[in-house]
Amino acid sequence: MSDRIAVTGLGLVTPGGTGVGPTWKSLCAGRPAARSDPALYDGPVTMSCRVPPPDAGPGRLWRFDPATRFLLTAAQEALACAGLEPAEWDPARVAVVVGTAAGGVGTLEAQHRKLLTAGHGVLSPMTLPAFLPNMAAGQLALELGVTGPSLQTSTACASGATAAVTACLLLAAGACDIAVAAGTDAMVTPLCASAFAKLGALSRRDHEPERASRPFDKDRDGFVLGEGCGVLLLEREPHARARGAVPLALLTGHGSTSDAHHPTAPHPEGAGLRAATMAALAGAGACPDDVDHINAHGTSTRLNDAVEAAVIRDLYPRRPPSVTSAKGVLGHTMGAAGAIEAAVTVLTIAHGTAPPTANFSAPDDTTAGLDIVTRAPRPQTVRLALSHSLGFGGHNTVLAFAAPSYT
Predict the structure, then answer these.
(1) Active-site residue among 157, 168, 176, 229?
(2) DSSP letter string over 320-346?
(3) What is the number of helices (H) and of strands (E) in the chain?
(4) Contacts of 336 by beta carbon, 8 Å cutoff, 6+ apart
(5) SS3 category, 224
(6) Domain with CATH 3.40.47.10 in the chain
(7) Which helix or strand (DSSP H or E) is residue 191 part of?
(8) Which of 267, 332, 388, 395 is an active site residue?
(9) Which residues does the UniProt record annotate as the domain Ketosynthase family 3 (KS3) (predicted)?
(10) Does residue 157 have an active-site annotation?
(11) Residue of 298, 294, 307, 315 lying closest to 401 (CA atoms)
């Protein structure tokens, strides 16, 4: 990348807690958020990773789908972290890019049930503004007074990472000076849970939900459905430095590829992930031996973890990086995962600490050979780290983050 992109602010709303601090604490403690979920008791899987109930907020929030509420909360934290005030910026030089896999699907399900049971007269007039996929970005732009580019990206579970890539491209093209890049989803709904269960993607450990999400573990049997939002405040580094901001990390490279293999299964040899990784490293001016840490996609499914592990083993034979997956604690937050895990990668660099992969005890033959961080946080100097994101449709996105002093 010709222009180094500074990460100057982070915001998180996750099953681990509302805010960067609570989420990071949960991850470092390796404390899984999965619980039995009464809203899913009539379905094939009865557990989830939900965002903790919010404190009472402004009355206007009833208009928004939970995915948009998560976004508005996380964005405010990211702005405060970056020391930015919307009243002080040029709104035409700010972009909003939000990734989502399903938009306001919870609103759509709820209003459809009303239509079927009570007729069209009871539908909320806010149905379309609440569930249309573009409206999270639109509502955030409205909230912040942003008049620059505002758009939504949707690459399934890679959506949040794709939003960060898109934001980088807008910054590099000179279309903005500041970009709010995010991923948000609230897909813990009866329809989504049942559909994922039908695909065989969800863990069936309903009797012990806290042990269900087991990335890379020999006993993994699927993911736990989660929800949440991650926000990264991105700026061209000269812009950030000019206003006195101290970057948390630099987004130095990115790679995006498509498998062109199968609607839901990754390429068996991980060709797309491999290519995306090499593109991200090329953008960062780095080679595999420079990578200190990988925040893996690590879904806890048989297929994903095996393919991802094979790619990591192949690309880093001489100097294996440490590997962690946040999904052991947070579950799979769908379109939010790429942004949440990118933020966790930045925190790993900033704190010099790699959080553990919850519930990992031992690998099987397909996941052996990785340096999995487990049981406790690992103090580690991380100069260059990668964040992997994969999604249905064969989407692969890899983000390369470096310490601010990295050259």
Answers:
(1) 157
(2) PPEEE-THHHH-B-GGGHHHHHHHHHH
(3) 12, 16
(4) 70, 99, 100, 159, 160, 183, 184, 185, 227, 228, 229, 230
(5) coil
(6) 5-242, 254-402
(7) helix 190-198
(8) 332
(9) 2-403
(10) yes
(11) 294
Cross-strand partners of 402: 250, 384
DSSP string, 37-95: -GGGTTSS--EEBPPPPPPP--GGGGGS-HHHHHHHHHHHHHHHHHT--GGGS-GGGEE
Q: Which secondary-structure segment (H or E) carries 378?
A: strand 378-379
Token pair of 13, please? 């709303």
Q: What is the pLDDT of residues 138-175, one digit of tens each?
A: 999 999 999 999 999 999 999 999 999 999 999 999 99
Mean confidence (pLDDT) of the chain = 95
Show Cβ contacts of residue 330 under 8 Å, excluding neighbours closer than 6 positions: 14, 15, 16, 23, 26, 27, 33, 49, 226, 228, 340
Look-up: residue for tokens 């590099």? 172
Non-local CB neighbours of 75 within 8 Å, separated by 6+ positions? 11, 140, 143, 144, 180, 182, 231
Rounded to the nearest angstrom, the gap between the alpha carbon of residue 124 and the centroid of all alpha carbons in its chain is 30
Question: For the domain 5-242, what is the CATH code?
Answer: 3.40.47.10
Where residue 4 falls among pLDDT bands split at 50, 70, 90?
confident
34, 1, 7: which is closest to 333 by C-alpha?
Answer: 34
The C-alpha atoms of residue 83 and residue 85 are separated, in whole angstroms, by 7
Q: Residue 386, class by beta-carbon neighbours within 10 Å (0-12 exposed, 13-18 middle, 19+ buried)?
A: buried
pLDDT tens-digit series, residues 190-208:
999 999 999 999 999 999 9
Name the catalytic one among 239, 254, 297, 388. 297
Length of the chain: 407
Rounded-to-integer distance, Cα 206 and Cα 38, Å: 12
Measuring CA to CA, how many Å separate 258 from each of 26, 273, 284, 393? 33, 9, 21, 8
The pTM assigned to this predicted structure is 0.97
What is the DSSP pairing of strand 94-99 with strand 178-186?
parallel
Where does the pLDDT of residue 1 fall: very low under 50, low under 70, confident under 90, or very high at 90 and above? very low
Do the beta carbons of residue 308 and residue 273 sit within 8 Å? yes
Instruction: Tell me whether residue 332 is one of the annotated catalytic residues.
Output: yes
Token pair, residue 177, equals 């000076």
For 103-118, write each residue's pLDDT tens digit. Answer: 999 999 999 999 999 9
Query: 254-402 architecture in CATH?
Result: 3-Layer(aba) Sandwich (3.40)
